[in-house]
Amino acid sequence: MVVTTALLWWILIQLFGLAVLPLTFCLFSHLPDRGYTLARPLGLLLVGYLLWLGGSLGFWRNSVSATIVALVLVGGVGWWLYAARLKSGDRSLSTWVRNHRAYVACVEVLFGLAMLGWTVFKAHNPNIETAGGEKWMEIAFVNATLRSEQFPPQDPWLSGYAISYYYFGYVLMAMVTRLSGLPATVAYNLFVPTLFALTLGGAFGLVYNLVTVGQQEDGPERSVPVRAWMGMLYGLVGAVFVGVIGNLEGFLEVLHSRGLLPAGFWHWLDIKDINVAPPLEGSWIPTRFMWWWRASRVIHDCSLQGLATGNCNPPGGDWEVIDEFPFFSFLLGDVHPHVLALPFVLLSLGLVLNAFIRASRAKRDARMGSSDPVSTGFGEKCRASAEPAETLAQRSAHLVKEISGGWPEFILVAVCLGGLGFLNTWDFPIYLAVMSIAIAAARAQVRETNWARETLATAGGLGLLGVGLYAPFYVGFQSQVGGLLPNLFNPTKVQQFLVFFGPFLFAIVGYLILISNRQGWRLHWKRLPPLLLAIVGAPIVAMLTIVGVAAISPALRPYMDGILYDPHMRSLLSQPSVGSLVLLALRLHLGNPLTWLLLSGLLIWIGLMWPSPRSASDYPVRTNSLTSSDRFVLLITSFGLALPLIVEFVYLRDNFGIRMNTVFKFYYQSWILLAVSAAYGIWAVHMRSLRAEALTRSERRSALWQPMLRGLWELVVVCLVLAGLVYPILSIPSKVAHYEDEPQLDGMEWLSKVYPGDYAAIRWLQANVPGEAVILEAPGDRYAAYDYVGRISALTGLATLLGWGNHEHQWRGSYEIPARREPEIEALFNGLDPTRITALLDQYDIAYVYVGTLERKRYRADGLAKFEQLMEAIYRQGDVVIYQRR
Fold this sequence. Notes:
Distance between the termini: 42 Å
Largest sheet: 4 strands, mixed
Shape: globular
Strand order of the largest sheet: 5-6-8-7
Mean pLDDT: 90
Low-confidence stretches: 366-389, 615-623
Strand content: under 5%
């Protein structure tokens, strides 16, 4: 049954990819694989976008027929663009597939095995439970979306209001769920393997393209052929780095569990749960309950109490910091927005790479008179660039051509990048910045240009279009984010930072040494002063500036007073003043500067080696120059280093009040960027060193490492990768209890054993109550989260007056509306005045009242009994009664 269901789901996902394959072939015209690995996420995103847009504007209902129409429209546009490309002389899709049979087969095998393997994993731990993640909230959003005829969907935990969250991923889940005909609680457990497979496929394709382009541009003068298998091999390395490998905490868990290394080491490392003396006699297999969870909480920040007492351990001594990575997310099995966005982040990186290569090759194509149909227009662009001035319209046209090739493709790029804002809003500004700076950097390589102007032009055009295309979402969106706050007290300990990013950073350092060698260590030292100011000085100036603003801003003054007058600060501050606070912050940051200096040093190194703009004589590419892949990898490495540097000093203000969420979101994207860079860097160091026989004697001296040093570097890389693989190898059997349970995919089946009355009633509601309606059930309160409340609304999609109040507070930035409902819900259940009860039922448009075990424990019997007279009992079984308005 599990395999059959998975096969049906696989066919549906393939359908989305096949529908847009011609469009993908056109859109990614400068990538060696023509975006083949990105077709499935592109198809899901474009069809989902049309379905959502039409449903938001009232053109159609959220239904199977509308999904099919959207699928046909997307496929039709793709075939139209493909036919136009064929007329211009581009090779056909069928020809490309024949010439790349091995690659296509490798991609499909990878996708199929990843999806099947993770489906088996999910079948052994399918439960959609309240604790240990966000599954309760996520299934509530999926079910609410399935019930909604229009968009936005009704908030299942705050009836009468739309979801105030980035919910596009749940639209995509509901879309495929409805097409499949499967229950949402089954589809939920199939979407996790889908995301896993799409992520591995996207990372595989991205690294394959980087390696292949690197070979193409690096080899002509050395007579080194392009080997497709090399790209596929390191593509697999990239897939493992992005989606399979863990950080080093899993390896450290093994050492600690076994009782290895002295207690002083574990105290110095200071990772919670293992910062105590190890057992004298232990096991190689960690046995602590949910030991695998700790890998997502490696960074250990002190609270004010912890700073004052010198004890940063619970209770009260620390502030939680989340540092998830993709494999942990797949292991946990949540489909939270940061996970839902993963394949589309890789899609966006593919678009950036395609645009970067297109723009980087512009002058070469013009100089050589290229007639390649996919490069049409670049000769004209470069000739125009030599003219004294361009009009705004000309610059816009050139920018559009460099990013995508034409206006239709440009709009598609904006849909994909803008979709990140709807999937996981944090990601949109990050990858908009990556695209903007990538285009500016590429243009700067072929002519002198104004970096700031080019970056702002790209960011402005794509940003405005990306937001405008999703305007119906932004119109009603509320956020808890309220500006920036300074990270005054918790510079990251370098040992914890290296536990998280160490394998990638070591590989990247080796790659940077290789690049410096190839350039003969000719660094641009004139850039050092501005780089020092921008990278080392600017972050701490930004932190201090925010402190100054907070001291005089009425909106932030409560934040400052909360710190200055906290009882624990008396032992840390000479007096409760801003000056004393600044001195304390400087002392803490300067006393623990290694993470700051490590990140700054690597960024400065990249800035010093970044090539100056080329002249026409630089083409074709010289053997010691940087390829397009090299420059792209240096660029995304810079972003991967800059994001954790930012949260050393500032973070986004939210309901948590600490840097927990900003570290979480920024580290997650850094992981992806650094993982891709590390995979490419390993190929570059290994293969370019082995190509020494193709170099001249002078080039060999500058480009070839001593074999012993290179061998030592490769040995350490292998050891670090194996240490990172300890986490998935040990955590999988631990998570599924060593495959003891019978495999099945229904995420609510566990309810039949623990809450059989609720289970039967929920099944009845799913089968007998169509459409949108409001059901009254026992609510949570402002602190409620990860509790067994909001269960009927979550598992049916019927909206209730209040579910998890804590989450509503986070989503809306205020608890004002839910707070008004709490006493009225109490009155509905416990009140005895029929006039008052009827008025409240009318006010909130309540169609059903659910009375089960939870309601009977919480509310008075005579209050519940009144519904027998006021309403009609339509379901009665055991302790559960469901009432309907007459």
